[in-house]
């Protein structure tokens, strides 16, 4: 059994600064504290919090577009990956989550850790249209649905980064029936069966509701 990842080992693996590590430690401490009252994440994931949530989120950072400024995190839950990417230096993170209690945690975490995050306590379908350098998501929906959610925020230069599990091939096949895109795959650093999809030049094969 793999030993839990420590903050020190995380820093060694990712090369984050002491300042960034301090922000992430604050975030992890608050998560443990709030989890006692609110079910923010799977309870069994807390025994390896730094691998299951912090590193799982941080692995997206080097895959973001060059000079990435604006990121939209769809269905962010307790703020992963968005809060972690904000701690690592993304200047304009928009976290979209409809669960009000999870949004309350995100607000407190962003305030205490000093993170630049705008929290949208609503469903992504009701979010005003904006353009982002990257649209990200973890454990939110199957790929065809994620592309529907993401498309209003996609520009010709946008990238989508989605953390996916064992069903990635099936999801790509299904998505290919309604979308064209350039696809890159990266093995997950935290899950042997996981994949990070990086999609670019995302376009629907048929007119999209936002284009009619």
From TrEMBL:
Reaction catalysis annotation: guanosine(527) in 16S rRNA + S-adenosyl-L-methionine = N(7)-methylguanosine(527) in 16S rRNA + S-adenosyl-L-homocysteine
Does this UniProt record's set of keywords contain Methyltransferase?
Answer: yes
Residue span of region Disordered: 174-212
Ranges of compositional bias, category Basic and acidic residues? 200-212
The name of this protein is Ribosomal RNA small subunit methyltransferase G
Location in the cell reads: Cytoplasm
Family, according to the entry, reads as follows: Belongs to the methyltransferase superfamily. RNA methyltransferase RsmG family.
Q: Where is the signal peptide?
A: none
Any one Pfam family here would be: GidB
Q: Which domain of life is it from?
A: Bacteria
GO CC, sorted alphabetically, is:
cytosol
Provide the binding site for S-adenosyl-L-methionine. 75, 80, 124-125, 138
Identify a single GO molecular function assigned to this protein. Answer: rRNA (guanine-N7-)-methyltransferase activity
Which HAMAP family does this one have? 16SrRNA_methyltr_G (MF_00074)
Keywords, A to Z, come to: Cytoplasm, Methyltransferase, rRNA processing, S-adenosyl-L-methionine, Transferase
- The gene is rsmG
Free-text function comment from the UniProt entry:
Specifically methylates the N7 position of guanine in position 527 of 16S rRNA.
Q: What is its EC number?
A: 2.1.1.170
Major subcellular location class: cytoplasm
């Amino acid at each position: 059994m793999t030993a839990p990842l420590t903050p020190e080992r995380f820093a060694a693996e990712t090369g984050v600064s002491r300042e960034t590590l301090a922000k992430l430690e604050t975030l992890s401490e608050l998560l443990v504290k709030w989890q006692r009252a609110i079910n923010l994440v799977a309870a069994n994931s807390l025994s390896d919090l730094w691998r299951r949530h912090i590193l799982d989120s941080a692995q997206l950072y080097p895959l973001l577009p060059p000079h990435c400024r604006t990121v939209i995190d769809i269905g962010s839950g307790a703020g992963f990956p968005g809060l972690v990417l904000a701690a690592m230096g993304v200047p304009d993170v928009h976290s979209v989550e409809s669960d009000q209690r999870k949004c309350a945690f995100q607000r407190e975490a962003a305030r205490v850790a000093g993170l630049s995050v705008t929290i949208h306590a609503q469903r992504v379908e009701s979010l005003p249209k904006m353009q982002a350098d990257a649209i990200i998501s973890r454990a939110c929906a199957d790929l065809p649905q994620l592309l529907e959610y993401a498309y209003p925020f996609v520009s010709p230069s946008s990238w989508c980064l989605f953390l996916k599990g064992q069903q990635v091939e099936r999801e790509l096949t299904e998505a290919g029936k309604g979308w064209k895109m350039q696809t890159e795959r990266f093995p997950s650093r935290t899950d042997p069966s996981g994949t990070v999809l990086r999609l670019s030049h995302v376009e629907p094969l048929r007119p999209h509701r936002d284009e009619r």
